[in-house]
């Protein structure tokens, strides 16, 4: 076997964004012997006390991005809302930015993303290139909907900037025409969903791929924010394999490098449809920290740094719940009933280190491991009812 030698620190990793995803990547990177630099507008962002250097600046500022790229061996994203055009220029000059900003360009505009899926033959929901925000009156919107022969319910999606429930609005009746999203958007058909699932996978520059078991996602009633994740998903083996196959072919088509999350719908007719693509580590993969041989965060670092991909074997079933800021509270976070987590067998508490809480802001998560998935779900439901993030 050929031997190799690596001078410490092995590489300098640059993260665009310093939120909780960056923090969890930084924890793995520091454990593995890498140097970490991050760019974020907030000097007290979650990654700030972990990285070797924090560049405080806008994720769209060219000077700040240039500084990050020049100081890093490889740059990656913690959040995809950044200056894609400038990153493409740097990528074309030979700077190592992964995944490619050309992939980011496809994914950041959800209409372009949908059209990419459709034109390349991937299963997804039907779309209409109709921007209801262009019409100021509900009567105008009603007229144009009738012209397109669109039936209720249907979904309006913002083309850019939407995440954690933002930028998605389901119009159930004509009365909802007064409440549309006031930004550039398009229309998707409403899908009769039996399950929402996600497939995480990693691909390296040599085309090697490792796939995690599909997970089941349950969303909060008040918005499109992940409330509970169940892994492995409670779906049949044939659907699991079909979902994995779709995800693999999509990331191969994109020529992606790193971890990708492919969110999907399983319809009432057992169709598997792609909903959205995330070109980064993702909320639907947090359970991998405790339940898999290789976490999504370590896997992403391996993929973008040209190290062998790790095993995605899940050794224990897992349930993950997000901890969101409670409604009516803003300020320094206070965690209620933290002792309940530590007294629950198989429960792991993660706090992101955000200095201020706000309603429905992601503040942390809890993962529960149990050989019996239904027992893990019951533990998660109990902890969800007890652990609350309020403010001082």
Automatic annotation (TrEMBL):
Keywords: ATP-binding, Decarboxylase, Ligase, Lyase, Nucleotide-binding, Purine biosynthesis
Entries under InterPro entries matching the protein: ATP-grasp, ATP-grasp_carboxylate-amine, ATP_grasp_subdomain_1, PreATP-grasp_dom_sf, PurK, PurK_C, PurT/PurK_preATP-grasp, Rudment_hybrid_motif
Residues of the ATP-grasp domain: 114-305
Annotated GO CC locations: cytosol
Family matches, as Pfam families: ATP-grasp, PurK_C, RS_preATP-grasp-like
Pathway as given in its UniProt record: Purine metabolism; IMP biosynthesis via de novo pathway; 5-amino-1-(5-phospho-D-ribosyl)imidazole-4-carboxylate from 5-amino-1-(5-phospho-D-ribosyl)imidazole (N5-CAIR route): step 1/2
The name this protein goes by in its record: N5-carboxyaminoimidazole ribonucleotide synthase
Organism: Fervidobacterium nodosum (strain ATCC 35602 / DSM 5306 / Rt17-B1)
Chain's gene name: purK
């Amino acid at each position: 076997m050929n031997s190799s030698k690596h001078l410490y620190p092995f590489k300098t990793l640059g993260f665009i964004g310093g939120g909780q995803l960056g923090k969890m990547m930084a924890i793995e990177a520091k454990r593995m012997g890498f140097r970490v630099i991050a760019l974020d507008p907030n000097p007290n962002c979650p990654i700030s006390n972990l990285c070797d250097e924090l560049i405080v600046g806008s994720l769209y500022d060219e000077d700040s991005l240039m500084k990050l790229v020049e100081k890093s061996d490889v740059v990656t994203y913690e959040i995809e809302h950044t200056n894609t055009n400038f990153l493409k220029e740097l990528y074309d000059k030979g700077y190592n930015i992964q995944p490619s900003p050309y992939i980011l360009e496809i994914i950041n505009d959800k209409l372009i993303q949908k059209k990419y899926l459709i034109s390349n033959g991937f299963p997804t929901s039907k779309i209409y290139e109709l921007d209801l925000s262009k019409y100021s009156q509900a009567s105008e919107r009603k007229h144009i909907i009738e012209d397109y022969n669109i039936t209720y319910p249907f979904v309006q999606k913002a083309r850019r900037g939407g995440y954690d429930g933002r930028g998605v609005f389901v119009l159930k009746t004509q009365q909802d025409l007064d409440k549309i999203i006031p930004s550039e958007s398009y229309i998707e058909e409403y899908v009769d969903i039996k399950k929402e699932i996600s497939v995480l996978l990693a691909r390296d520059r040599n085309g090697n791929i490792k796939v995690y078991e599909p997970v089941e996602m349950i969303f909060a009633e008040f918005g499109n924010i992940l409330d509970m994740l169940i892994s492995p998903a409670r779906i049949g083996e044939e659907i699991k394999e079909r979902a994995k196959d779709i995800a693999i072919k999509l990331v191969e088509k994109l020529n992606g490098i790193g971890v990708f999350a492919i969110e999907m719908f399983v319809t009432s007719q057992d169709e598997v449809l792609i909903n959205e693509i995330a070109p980064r580590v993702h909320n639907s993969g947090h359970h991998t920290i405790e339940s898999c041989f290789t976490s999504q965060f370590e896997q992403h670092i391996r993929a973008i740094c040209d190290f062998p991909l790790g095993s995605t074997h899940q050794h224990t079933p897992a349930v993950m719940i997000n901890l969101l800021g409670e409604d009516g509270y803003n300020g320094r976070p206070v965690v209620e009933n933290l002792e309940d987590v530590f007294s629950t067998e198989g429960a792991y508490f993660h706090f992101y280190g955000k200095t201020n809480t706000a309603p429905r802001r992601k503040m942390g998560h809890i993962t529960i491991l149990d050989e019996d998935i239904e027992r893990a779900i019951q533990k998660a439901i109990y902890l969800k009812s007890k652990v609350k993030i309020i403010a001082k």
